[in-house]
């Protein structure tokens, strides 16, 4: 059954992964709704990654909603898309509570975009005309109406000079002054969260350099010195701006708010048609971003982003991109997060980044699995070590031998895991294969990504040693066991997808 807290699958979910074994990612019945599948995939991946307290993932979520808004996708459209996708997967994509939270976040972002006058694309304008609306957030009922006032206040705070850093500092100080050891109430927590999301949305819009009706040039804070020749800006609510000023701001917006090196690329990574028109460097950047977002969700135990991570790794491999080249397209600050599996707090320059190391290790595991399975790598003759991310061994940065030793150790781990899978098939399931039914798919989950929920298989392995000390709390809570079991799951998933491709290859070429 799904976990009551988060809807993740556990070992008792017999038969529910039959579809996942042959279709790791959602497949809709109709073939003409590619756009809807793209939005659903992007929303779910970014949302699950955002639950790991990643600012970068939150910005990617905003990037997705901005593109949806500009193309005229309404909140009702997003709700229908998510509902259909959930039905296709038997309700295992998102639990109802997660779906409601995601939709509320989409509503907050859309209201913020409407408040500052983000324009629609021509396709979006045409879609709004057909629906008799001005913009996707033009709705006076339901969730949008309830959140409009709160977002309006957040927009005014941003225009008055409040950025995300200052807002987080204010909220942190307010919590300390209240002295509530139990933390803020759910209502206060939700209000603070939505306020931060609105501020993040406006910062992303400003970073993307999009034209807006209301200027996003913030008034300097009292602690910020004015630049030479700069006059203090008045902190007026957006609602009090005159129409003449708005027109002037809209005409001059591109000059006043240039693009601030906006390079996340998550929306591009979810659009295969747009990816095909980009340079190789842009494609590698977009793929790296999508891998990082999927990793952040999968590291929490979500099966959907885990499948996406493995499939994207395989795509990068088949394109002939070295693992190190993909890894190098990510910046240090994009790995920053707290909570979840990996914790990264107060990192100083030159220190070891656990999140980046784990990401590099996951990428290397999938690449090495492909190597051991005999999948041809197009760039093998051009460079050495193309299946290993040396950034995952930063602790041995001054010792090349240490990095090499770690790479060989990981390769042995992958080889032994594959051998164990083959032996299990021959001994216990002679008629099964990597493309077989739900029992093996569930076995991959039991031994891998969700080992916290289902440690029974690991207990069986422990009994094979000389001495067994039963500690029921060790396996579910041990970080080392969790990390190893996740890597086992990555090998199993990659093996399963490779065997599926080999099984389907003859029929597709016949």
Features:
510 residues, mainly alpha, 21 helices, globular, disordered N terminus
Polypeptide structure, described:
- By secondary structure, the protein is an all-alpha fold.
- It folds into 2 domains: 223 residues, no CATH class; 227 residues, no CATH class.
- The protein is built from 21 helices and no strands.
- The two termini are 40 Å apart.
* Relative helix content: 55-70%
Mean pLDDT: 74
- Tally of distinct domains: 2
Number of helices: 21
Note the run of SSEs as H and E.
HHHHHHHHHHHHHHHHHHHHH
Structural class: mainly alpha
Q: Which regions are unreliable across 5 or more consecutive residues at pLDDT < 50? A: 1-32, 222-261, 339-351, 393-397, 430-454, 463-467
**N- and C-termini, Cα separation:** 40 Å
**What's the β-strand tally?**
0
Protein name: Expressed protein
Region (Disordered): 216-255
Biased composition (Low complexity): 234-255
Organism: Chlorella variabilis
Outline of the structure:
The protein is an all-alpha fold and 510 residues long.
Give the helices and strands, then pairings.
Elements: H1 18-22, H2 34-50, H3 55-70, H4 75-88, H5 96-116, H6 122-131, H7 142-159, H8 164-178, H9 186-208, H10 243-256, H11 266-269, H12 272-275, H13 280-298, H14 303-318, H15 323-327, H16 354-372, H17 400-428, H18 438-447, H19 456-462, H20 474-477, H21 479-509
């Amino acid at each position: 059954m799904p976990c009551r807290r988060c809807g993740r699958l556990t070992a008792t979910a017999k038969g529910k992964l039959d579809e996942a074994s042959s279709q790791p990612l959602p497949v809709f019945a109709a073939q003409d709704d590619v756009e809807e599948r793209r939005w659903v995939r992007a929303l779910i991946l970014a949302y699950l990654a955002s639950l790991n307290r990643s600012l970068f993932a939150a910005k990617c979520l905003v990037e997705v909603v901005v593109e949806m808004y500009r193309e005229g996708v309404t909140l009702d459209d997003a709700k229908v898309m998510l509902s259909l996708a959930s039905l296709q997967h038997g309700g295992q994509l998102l639990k109802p509570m997660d779906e409601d939270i995601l939709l509320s976040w989409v509503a907050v972002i859309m209201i913020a975009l409407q408040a500052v006058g983000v324009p629609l694309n021509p396709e979006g304008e045409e879609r709004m005309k057909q629906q008799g609306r001005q913009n996707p957030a033009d709705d006076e009922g339901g969730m949008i109406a309830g959140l409009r006032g709160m977002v309006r206040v957040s927009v005014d705070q941003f225009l008055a000079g409040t950025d995300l850093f200052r807002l987080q500092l204010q909220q942190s100080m307010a919590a300390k002054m209240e002295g509530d050891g139990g933390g803020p109430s759910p209502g206060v927590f939700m209000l603070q969260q939505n306020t931060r999301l609105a501020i993040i949305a406006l910062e992303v819009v400003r970073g993307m350099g999009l034209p807006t009706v209301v200027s996003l040039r913030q008034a300097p804070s009292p602690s910020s010195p004015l630049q030479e020749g700069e006059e203090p800006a008045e902190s007026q609510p957006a609602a009090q701006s005159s129409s003449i000023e708005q027109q002037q701001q809209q005409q001059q917006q591109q000059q006043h708010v240039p693009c601030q090196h906006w390079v996340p690329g998550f929306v591009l990574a979810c659009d295969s048609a747009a990816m095909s028109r980009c340079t190789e460097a842009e494609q590698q950047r977009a793929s790296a971003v999508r891998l990082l977002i999927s990793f952040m969700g999968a590291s929490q135990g979500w099966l959907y982003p885990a499948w996406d991570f493995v499939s994207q790794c395989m795509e990068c491999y088949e394109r002939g991109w070295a693992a190190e080249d993909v890894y190098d397209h990510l910046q240090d600050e994009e790995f920053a997060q707290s909570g979840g599996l990996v914790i990264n707090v107060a990192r100083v320059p030159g220190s070891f980044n656990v999140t980046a190391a784990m990401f590099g290790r996951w990428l290397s595991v999938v690449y090495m699995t492909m190597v051991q399975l005999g999948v041809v790598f197009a760039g093998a003759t051009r460079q050495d070590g193309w299946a290993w991310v040396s950034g995952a061994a930063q602790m041995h940065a001054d010792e090349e031998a240490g990095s090499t030793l770690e790479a060989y150790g990981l390769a042995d781990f992958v080889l032994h895991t594959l051998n164990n899978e083959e032996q299990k098939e021959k001994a216990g399931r002679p008629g099964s294969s990597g493309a077989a039914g739900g029992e093996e798919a569930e076995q991959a989950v039991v031994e891998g990504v969700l080992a916290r929920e289902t440690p029974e298989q690991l207990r069986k392995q422990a009994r094979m040693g000389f001495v067994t000390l039963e500690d029921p709390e060790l396996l579910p809570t041990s970080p080392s066991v969790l990390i190893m079991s996740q890597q086992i799951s990555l090998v199993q998933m990659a093996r399963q997808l490779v065997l599926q491709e080999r099984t389907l290859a003859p029929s597709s070429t016949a």
